[in-house]
Automatic annotation (TrEMBL):
Organism domain of life: Bacteria
Name of the featured protein: dTDP-4-amino-4,6-dideoxygalactose transaminase
Family named by the database record: Belongs to the DegT/DnrJ/EryC1 family.
InterPro entries: DegT/StrS_aminotransferase, PyrdxlP-dep_Trfase, PyrdxlP-dep_Trfase_major, PyrdxlP-dep_Trfase_small, WecE-like
Modified residues annotated as N6-(pyridoxal phosphate)lysine in this record: K188
Keywords: Pyridoxal phosphate
Length: 383
């Protein structure tokens, strides 16, 4: 059998190894393997400048960035946050750890993002925040979501884990709500294996975010010379990634545009070559609204039924092509059922989750490999 075609893998240049060795082998007086070293500062400076972000703090994962966000919102028992069920568990776990409860809202039919038209009817006196998730690197309707949040005095935490370098109305995702979350997991467009970032757009959270991230101390102020010693001032934990990981990430971030261009090229090839099947009603292609600029994180197709999806997925797998489903709706998980949800509560979430199939997409995917995927799908519908 030919080499399997995987779903995703990081794009590597020669610089990842070069920068890692620089960090590893720096002269002893300049060697810094722990968090917030030279490469961490380079990453945050690059992100803040490129994305026009107020303040970026690297974290060990997007999950930990979400943990920080939940702590910054001072959530507690009885509080509620509005979130789509079409999501990964991290997006709700961080809020549940504070004692807050997720209130699940159905998704839009076009982008599979949270349906902003259903948010207000789910707001109660206990609601504290809205958590929009930018699925596949395509923005939610942030104009409407921010307007709702303002009217009801709620915070907005953008889960932009999949959306680094994507935009909405020419603003970068993650910089539009009060707080934003990025992921640099190996499955994402830009990766250091495991990593994330918290984007602080509401300045009221800046000082406390640094403290929570640094084990509840004002250590960051000390290193800036703002205090002559640092001490324990709040709750917190260790959310700093090693500067060795930041060295790898910096090489990735230097190629933000190049990586995105390649992903866009492959994304458009899928669109063009599968368009006839879409026109014939065999499948549905992703939707990118005119006011959204995607980062082309995921290319998926929607099949007519779950059975057709599973049959195609299994046939592709037998040919060495890893195409997979995505989220199992959180409201139908064992935890979701404990919260009182049941099948039928969120119709579109349940329907599209069962019909969605993700196709291989990563910069090193060759056009020859992609053509194999496309031909296999076309052949499936000719049988």
């Amino acid at each position: 059998m030919a080499q399997p075609i995987v779903l995703t893998k990081p794009s590597l240049s020669s610089k990842e190894k070069k920068y890692l060795l620089q960090a590893l082998e720096a002269p002893l007086q300049h060697r810094h393997w722990a968090g917030d070293g030279p490469f961490t500062r380079k990453c945050t400076a690059l992100l803040e400048k490129r994305l026009d972000a107020n303040k970026v703090l690297l974290t060990t994962s997007a999950t930990h960035a979400l943990d920080l966000a939940a702590l910054l919102l001072n959530l507690g028992v009885g509080d509620e946050v509005i979130v789509p069920s079409f999501a990964f568990s991290s997006t709700v776990n961080c809020f549940m750890l504070t004692g807050a409860k997720p209130v699940f809202v159905d998704i839009r039919e076009d982008t599979l993002n949270i349906d902003e038209a259903l948010i207000e009817e789910n707001i109660t006196r206990r609601t504290r925040a809205i958590i929009p998730i930018h699925y596949a690197g395509v923005s939610c309707n942030m104009k409407r979501i921010n307007a709702i949040a303002k009217a009801h005095k709620l915070m907005v935490v953008e889960d932009a884990a999949q959306a680094v370098n994507a935009r909405y109305q020419d603003r970068f995702l993650g910089t539009i709500g009060d707080l934003g979350i990025y992921s640099f997991h190996e499955s994402k467009n830009y990766s250091c294996g495991e990593g994330g970032a918290l984007v602080i757009n509401n300045r009221r959270f800046e000082e406390r975010a640094e403290i929570l991230r640094e084990k509840g101390t004002n250590r960051s102020k000390y290193f800036r010379g703002e205090v002559n010693k640092y001490t324990w001032v709040d709750i917190g934990s260790s959310y700093l990634p090693s500067d060795l990981l930041a060295a790898i990430l910096y090489a990735q971030l230097e190629r933000l545009s190049a990586i995105q261009r390649r992903r866009k090229f492959l994304y458009r090839r899928y669109e063009q070559n599968l368009s006839m099947l879409a026109q014939g009603g065999k499948l549905r292609l992703p939707t990118i609204p005119p006011d959204c600029q995607s980062n082309y994180h995921i290319f998926y197709i929607l099949l007519s039924t779950e059975k057709v999806r599973n049959n195609l997925m299994n046939i592709l797998k037998s040919q060495g092509i890893l195409a997979v489903f995505h989220y199992i709706p959180l409201h139908l998980s064992p935890m979701g059922i404990k919260l009182g949800y049941q099948k039928g509560d969120l119709r579109r979430t349940e329907e599209f989750s069962g019909r969605l199939l993700r196709l291989p997409l990563y910069p090193d995917l060759t056009t020859k490999q992609q053509d194999l995927v496309i031909r296999s799908i076309q052949r499936f519908f000719r049988q």
